[in-house]
Design goal:
Serine Threonine Protein Phosphatase 5, Tetratricopeptide repeat
Length: 184
């Protein structure tokens, strides 16, 4: 492969889209060896680290992205990923802080309200959780946010190695159940 950072980044993106996260990691790392400031590669690497089970590496990568482009229009997606990691690690207050920042920075982030609903429910704020869930259903329509089964059927809604899927089940889906989202 050529010595072009972007070519390696694209390879990483293709592998990530195929859910081949562990194979995508070296592609992103090679891209970053050629251009350490390629924020798209850092972000892709962070998602792959999450899905491959290296959850402890995700937040430092996203913090690097934020420091390189604090005013980028997509910064809410970085906050969203940080909030997701905090939630998966049962740091609910931190999750809510970051997910609220994500909502402010990018109100159209597809799963943000549902993540917030789960986090609020985990914190015991079920009325607020139900309101976030209703807002997600209102904003996005369709059946996606109508049940746990629909969420689990959506590609990318929750995935990764068994360790990460277990964290989603123990936090994200547990919170959504507390928020009132039915199984079917």
């Amino acid at each position: 492969m050529p010595r072009y950072a972007f070519a390696h980044f694209v390879k990483g993106e293709v592998l990530r889209a195929q859910h081949r996260w562990e194979e995508a990691i070296p592609a992103y790392e090679t891209a970053l060896a050629f251009n350490r400031n390629l924020v798209m590669a850092i972000n892709g690497l962070a998602w792959c680290k999450l899905y491959a089970g290296s959850i402890e590496e995700v937040i430092p990568l996203e913090e690097q992205v934020i420091s390189l482009g604090p005013r980028e229009p997509w910064i809410g997606h970085c906050y969203y990923l940080i909030g997701t990691v905090h939630m998966l690690q049962s740091r609910t207050d931190e999750a809510i802080l970051w997910l609220e920042k994500a909502r402010s920075a990018g109100p159209a982030i597809l799963f943000n309200q549902v993540r917030l609903a789960s986090a609020y429910a985990l914190r015991g704020e079920t009325e607020r959780a139900a309101a976030e869930l209703a807002e997600a259903q209102r904003l996005h329509g369709g059946d996606l946010f109508s049940s746990i089964a629909c969420l689990k059927a959506f590609p990318g809604a929750w995935m990764g190695v068994p360790k990460i899927r277990a964290l989603y089940e123990a936090t994200y889906f547990a919170g959504l159940r507390k928020a009132g989202l039915p199984e079917e």
